[in-house]
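Reviewers of the previous submission asked for a worked example of the structure-prediction workflow described in the proposal, so we include one complete record here. The input consisted solely of the amino acid sequence. No template or homolog information was supplied to the procedure at any stage.
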Amino acid sequence: MELIRGLKSLKPKHRGSVASIGNFDGVHLGHLAVLAELKAKARELHLPATVVLFEPMPQEYFAPERAPIRLTRFGEKWPLLEAADVERVLCLHFDQALATLAPEEFIRRVLIQGLGVEHLTVGDDFRFGRERSGDFAMLQSVGGRQGFEVETTASFMLEGARVSSSRIRSLLMEGELEAAARLLGRPYGLSGHVIYGEKLGRTLGFPTANIALGRKQAPVSGIFVSRVHGVETRPLPGVSYVGVRPALGGTHPVLETYLPGYSREIYGRRLRVDLLHRLREDRHFDSLDALVAQMQKDVQAATAWHADHTS
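From that input alone, the workflow returned the following structure tokens.
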């Protein structure tokens, strides 16, 4: 998959495409349905399937304090799009210049001159350009004159409701990991590099891999049964903590994972941790002895869960 960073990176070779524009936060089953249709159209027209993304997401630019918590950072979204066989991703830096660009100019510069779009798929509520004045009707009107098709995405329904990033986000925040996984089509996971921590877990008998998330917020918190990719050739069972560690004065979420029976050094490795089941909420303990006793129970519960769910 080719990543194109910004309008200035578009070359003549990128003209001619079938494209979709959106956040694709989570790359869930609804997104995968859109991408399947996109790829089918791309095969029909013998053109590359292209996804157009914005970084930061527009809501994060306009109102960062009210923007929804991301399901996936770009570094996590990228491999999911690649796994869905998207051929190109155009990542546009969302800044003042892009936010104030007239919608007609966006169409001309990005879709016509840049990508040479022959078929475009967007949501019927898609808004773009200065003051969000561009809409689906404008795209269809310009497409009719310029010779490219514009279609809307159909809602993907599961369990009687539309699959959406906001629905998945709510399930994760409620600790409903299994329900969220059904809508994602996979377990929800977080990824990052293993960094040096304070080694408190090691002193308590539970050495953990401390993974840098690069996030101000996470849609999950608590103690989880997990599955860890990137340590060995096969995924390893684990017990993971996601939270801000309030007792230590933390403000940003951290991910700490204990791998029972594993003792090798893994600093610097990039891991993906699938969160399979929430064991309990994060809570404060009055003593280290109480904390250790609870950690022992958590490991036992996670081991039992893995045994029950491994065929």
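Residues 188-308 form a domain with the Elongation Factor Tu (Ef-tu); domain 3 fold (CATH 2.40.30.30). We consider this example representative of the routine output the project will generate in years two and three.
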